[in-house]
Amino acid sequence: MIHFQHPHILWLLLMVPALVGLWIWLLRRNRKRLEQFADRSMFGRLIPDASAWRPSLKFGLIIAALAFLILAIANPQQGSKMVKGERLGSDISICLDISNSMMAEDIQPNRLERSKRTVTNLLNELGSDRISLIVFAGSSYVQMPLTNDYSAVKLFLDQIDCSMIEAQGTAIGDAIEKAMESFGYGDEDREWKKNQGRAIIVISDGENFEDDAEAAARKAAAEGVRVCTIGMGLAEGTPIPQYRGGQRVGYKRDNNGNTVTTHLDEATLTAIAHAGKGVYVRANNINSGVQEIVNMIEGLEKEHYGESMFSEYESRYQYPLVAALICLLAELLIFERRNRKFNIEKLLNNEN
Description:
By secondary structure, the protein is α/β, with parallel strands linked by helices. It has helices at 15-35, 43-46, 54-74, 111-125, 150-158, 172-182, 213-222, 266-275, 290-298, 318-333, 344-351, and strands spanning 3-4, 76-89, 91-97, 130-136, 140-147, 198-204, 225-231, 238-239, 241-244, 247-251, 261-262, 277-282, 303-315. Helices cover 38% and strands 24% of the residues.
């Protein structure tokens, strides 16, 4: 069975039908232009050396070479075998804001759903790191303890919504403390070892009203835990929709009847990341900043988590690469115009 190491590269194959369609359109346009000057039956006399099939054959070879090159870059692999290897990783705690302001729709479909997609993208980029999941609003709790079972994390992630915590607000500091507890900090039954192989990722709009999040991040950093933040939302501000029975019934209002707006507080999130010796990235509809966070995680110290069995594949990129080179070489050897000294059509006619 063929396995591609970089399957996302295969999307480039969509260029092939697009280029073929463009080529057909250009051929028809050029033929119509020629028909404006002479009848089709006169083309052979006016352009005696022109070939009807050589340009198309050369183009076909170039397109085939392009397709083979894309396949080579995607790196097809085959012949998986199980090998035993050392499992190294870091401990990562993801703190997800589920306060009502995360229902704002300044980024689509809303801040909370975009946050959950960001977590999923992050999990897809990680390897053997252990993950814990913390949800928070006015208070926080551990939704998923440390695990390397990413499928279970995604399953729990799908169930998260803003109704899970009744105490509304945004207590980022409490969430950071819960994340530290998920690492074993403060647990008398677990030995705490300070190292540089742990990180906390806070995903929030940054509107922190409950506690001193910077102090919590600074305390975590003192124990070797880096605190990173991902900002969800736009700074311009947007109302908070309210739903009943799955239907929007309006927007949240204050005691005076004014519509409440929520803003992305980048200053707070940046300050938390700075205190936690981490990085801050801003999410939007296009980019969730996952790669920058992944790069930071890859630079953390790795702990030994024992041995595990891994699938190992043998690369087969050489075959499409050779096929691409053969197509390009054939294209170079074929001329667009007919060869008068060696003409296959004339040879066939003489034999007849």
